[in-house]
C-alpha cells in the first residue's frame, strides 16, 4: 500500500510545495491536493519544473479534490463542469488518477429524488473524465450527528455505498473508504473483506476518540494510532482483500492545531509508519 | 391513438380467443394478455393459425404481462429470467413490442436500497429483451391506500417515475401511464404535456368514482366516462404531446362484474368510443 | 410534421434575424442554426427580446449545430466540451431540444478503433446535455464519393446507423435522416417504415439530380421536388411510422446560389409546401 | 498471484475430481472448468460434498467456461442465455467469480457490425451475471493464421481489446491476457505495465516454439518455460502493475499428449513453479 497525506492534519500549510517537501521528509509517498494548488505550483515552476520537483522529492499526486458541486442545484453542477475538464487535464499531466469527493449522509430533499439526481450527475462526470484515465472516489460520511444534520437520512455506510456504486455502473467510480466513517457507521472488518478491491478507489486513515460511536464527531478526529479505532485490523483487511492503492491520512479537527506544519507532518509520518508496521505492511 | 382492452373489466373471460373476438366485435384494435394465454392460443391453432386468427379479426397483441417477479427477492427474480426470454420470443413472433409491469408505491424495504435493487433488475431485463425489439412499460401506482400499504413510501407519481426512467437510462424503458394512477397521485394535465412522448410506452384508461382523491381505491375503478376523471383532457394532452400508441382499458373492480363478457366488452367498446370521440381522436 | 429551414439553400443569409423572418414569410415553422448565431441575436435583442421576436414570427429554433469536433483528435474533442455546455444552456433557453451532427462515411483510421472512439465521445456528450433536455441527431452521409474519400469505409447507411445508435445506448441519441443520404446509400422505403419513430431525432429533406446513384455528389443537391428522389414516398413512410418531428430543408450546392435569400426562401417554402401536400401532410 | 490449471495440457483428464486432485498434488491453487463438469461433481458428491472436497484439497474453482455462443447467430445467443443463469448460480455456490471466453481475430461478417453485435451481447451477459458477483474475462486471440482464417480482421491485440472493454463500459468485463496471444500479436512488456490492473480479469500462461512470430500456431503451444516467450518479464510486468489474480496454464496442442494426466500435471506444476520463482513471485 502507498502512504498519503491530505492537508487536514498539517495545520497552516503554506502551499503545495511545502506539502510535498513535508511528505518527502516523513516518508510519505503521495500528497492529496486540488487543482488550484497544482496550478499555483505550475505558475511557480512551470509544468516540467513542477513534475521534476515532485520527482526529486519522490512524491506523487495521489488524489485531487473533485471541483464540482454535485450535491446541490443543477445550475451549480453544470457551472462547474468546465472546471472538471480543466482539472482532469492537470491530473493527467501529473499522472494522478483519482478525484476525491464525499456525499452527505442526510438531505433536506426527498431521498429517492436526491439519489436519482446524484446518480445522474456522477455518471456524467465519470464519463467526462474517463478519457483522461481518471476515477472518482466516492466517500460516505458516517458520524451520527451528520446523519441527523438534515431532515432525511441518505446513504451513510459501506455496504449501501457499494450498492450505489454498483447501480451507478461506471467502471471508474469506486468507494473512498475512510476509517472514521467506517467506524462511526458501525462498520465491521467483514464489510471490508467482502469488497472486490477493484471497487476501492481510495482510502483515508485517521482515528477517533474514546467515546460512544454515536458521539464521535466528523471534525473530532485523531492521528492514526492515537484513538480507539482498530486501524491495524482495518489495514490488514484491506491487504487481505488485495488493495494495493493509497492510504492517506486525513485528520479533521474542530480547531486548527497550534503546532507548526513541520511538527504535525512529523507526527503524521510517525503515526502512519507505526500503524503500517503493526499491520505488517512494511 | 390505438384502442386496447386488457382483461380487467371483461369479467370471466374464457380465453385469449374470446378476448380477441370481443375486441374485434367492439371496434378495439389490440388486446393485452400474457405469455401463457398466447401459448395456449398457439397450442390450439399453431403459431401460423394464431397469427392468421388475429389478422382475420384485425386485432393485434398490444402488450404482454411482464413475467418476472422483479419486486421481491433476488432468487425469485433470477428464477424468472428464463421466462422473460421465452415470452420475448413469443412477443416478437406476434409483433408485440411491450411488456407491462407495475411497481408498488410503498415498501417494507429501505426505499433507497429498494430503488437501487429495482433499477438494477429493470436494466438487466431491458437489456435482455432489447434484441427482440421489446420495451418495458413501467406503471406507477397512485391510490393513497397503496402508498400506505407498506412501511415506507416509494415512487408513486408521474414526474418521479420519469426521473427514475431517466436514471435507468435504457432506451427501451418507458412509463405506463394509467388514468387512475395519474388522477389519484394528484396528476395535472401539465404533467402530461411536459412529457417527451418517446418516454410513454403505454397508456391505461379507466375512471374513478366521485370520492375525495385520497379515498379512491385501486380496485374501485369505473369504465371510462362513468366517473369523475377528466379523461377527455387526459387524452387530448396525450395527443398534443404527440403520443400515437395504445390506450388500453383496464377496469379493476373489487368483485368481478356479474354481467357476461359479451355485455362487458360491448360496454367497454362504447365507453372507449365515446371518450375517444370527445377527445377528438376519431 | 413540422417544416424547417437550415441555412443551406438560402444563399448569403445576413443573420439569424433574417433567417427567422424569411421562414415566417414562407410558412416555415422552425429554423436550424448554431450557438453563435443565437448569441448574436441575444446581443442584439436581449434574451427576452430574442424569444419575443421568435414568438411574433411564430418561428421556433428547430436544431442547433453540434459545437464539438468529435471526429478527430482527443484534444480537439475535449477542448470543445465547454462549448457544448454553453450551447445546451442556450438551447434550453429557446426550448430547442436537438443538436445536429454528421459523421463521415470513411476514415483514415482503423474503422473498429474509430467506431469505439466515436461511440465513447457521443456517450459523453449525450450524458452532458441530457439534463438540459437535449438530444443528439446523428446524420449518416451516403454519397459514394464520400465513402471513398478516406482509406476505409465507415458507417454510411440507415440500418447500420440504427445499429450503432442502439449500441450507443443513450436514450437521447437518434438518427438524423437526410433524404439525399438515404437515397445515395441505396435506402428503401421499407428501411424507413421499419424504424421505431422514437429513434428518429430529425429529418433533412432535399433532392438529387438525374444521375446514377453513385454519381450524385454531397454538394450537388436540389430543392425538394426538383430532382428524382421519391420524397413523397419518403415523407409518407415517415408519417406511417408515426414520426411527428421536424423535416428541414438543407440544400448544399457546390457554388452559392446567385439569387437573393428572399427569392431562395420563397422557392424553398414553395418546394416544401408542394411536397408536403403531395405526401398528404397538410 | 494465484496458480491455476485449465484442462488443456493435462491430456485425457478423467473428470473434475481428478483435475482437482492433480492440481492439489502439484501445488496449484485453482482449476478452470465448466458448468457441466461442476454439475457432474455435484451429482457425485452433493453440493456440500463437492465444496468439502475442494476445501480438503485446498483447491478452488478459478474460472468457468462461458456457456454462451455469443459470436454467431442471434438465435444461438438467446438460446444459451438460460444456461448462463444456471452456470452463474453454480459459480456463486462455489465462490467462482470468473467466466472465460474468447473472440476470434477475424470474421466473415462486416467488422463494424460484428463489433456492435458482440458488444450488445456481452453487455447483456455482463448485466445478467452481475448480481451473482461474476465477471467476464474476454480473451483476444493473437496468432497470425487465426487473423487470416476469415475474410476480415477483427480485434486481436491487447491495446485494442482494452479499448473495446472500455467501450463496453460494464465494470464486470475485463481482459483475459494469454501469454501466447500477447506474444503472437506483437505485445510488449510496456503494453502490460500500461494497464489498470482492475481491467485484467484473468491470465493464461503457456509458451511458444522457436519460430517467427507469424508462424506460431494457436494449437502449437508449449508448457511454460519450454519455449521462447519472455514469461518472466510477462509475470513481472503483471506483478508491477498490481495484478494479484490467477495465472492459469493452458497448453493447447495439435495432438493430445501421449503421457498420462498424472505426468502432465506434474510437468505443469514444475513448469509453473519455476517460472513463478524466476519472476520473484514466491
UniProtKB/TrEMBL annotation, chains A, B, C, D:
KW Cytoplasm (keyword) present: no
Xylose isomerase-like TIM barrel domain segment(s): 23-255
Keyword annotations: Isomerase
GO molecular-function term, one example from the UniProt record: isomerase activity
A Pfam family assignment: AP_endonuc_2
Spans traversing the lipid bilayer: none
Protein's recorded name: Sugar phosphate isomerase/epimerase family protein
Organism: Tigheibacillus halophilus
Amino acid at each position: 500500500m502507498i502512504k498519503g497525506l491530505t492537508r487536514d492534519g498539517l495545520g497552516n500549510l503554506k502551499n503545495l510545495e511545502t506539502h510535498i517537501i513535508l511528505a518527502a521528509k516523513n516518508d510519505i509517498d503521495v500528497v492529496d491536493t486540488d487543482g488550484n494548488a497544482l496550478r499555483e505550483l505550475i505558475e511557480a515552476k512551470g509544468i516540467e519544473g513542477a513534475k521534476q520537483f515532485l520527482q526529486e522529492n519522490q512524491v506523487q499526486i495521489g488524489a485531487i479534490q473533485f471541483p464540482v458541486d454535485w450535491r446541490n442545484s443543477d445550475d451549480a453542477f453544470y457551472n462547474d463542469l468546465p472546471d472538471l475538464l480543466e482539472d482532469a487535464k492537470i491530473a493527467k499531466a501529473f499522472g494522478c488518477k483519482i478525484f476525491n469527493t464525499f456525499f452527505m449522509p442526510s438531505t433536506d430533499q426527498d431521498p429517492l429524488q436526491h439519489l436519482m439526481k446524484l446518480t445522474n450527475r456522477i455518471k456524467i462526470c465519470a464519463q467526462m473524465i474517463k478519457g483522461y484515465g481518471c476515477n472518482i472516489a466516492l466517500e460516505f460520511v458516517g458520524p451520527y450527528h451528520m446523519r441527523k444534520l438534515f431532515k432525511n437520512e441518505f446513504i451513510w455506510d459501506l455496504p449501501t455505498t457499494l450498492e450505489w456504486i454498483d447501480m451507478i455502473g461506471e467502471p471508474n467510480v469506486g468507494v473512498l473508504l475512510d476509517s472514521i466513517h467506517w467506524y462511526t457507521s458501525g462498520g465491521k472488518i467483514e464489510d471490508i473483506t467482502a469488497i472486490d478491491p477493484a471497487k476501492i478507489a481510495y482510502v483515508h486513515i485517521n482515528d477517533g476518540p474514546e467515546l460512544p460511536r454515536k458521539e464521535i464527531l466528523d471534525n473530532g478526529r485523531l492521528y492514526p494510532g492515537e484513538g480507539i479505532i482498530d486501524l491495524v485490523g482495518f489495514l490488514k483487511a484491506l491487504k487481505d482483500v488485495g488493495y494495493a492503492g493509497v492510504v492517506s491520512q486525513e485528520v479533521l479537527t474542530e480547531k486548527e492545531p497550534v503546532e507548526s506544519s513541520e511538527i504535525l507532518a512529523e507526527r503524521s509520518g510517525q503515526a502512519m509508519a507505526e500503524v503500517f508496521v503493526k499491520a505488517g505492511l512494511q
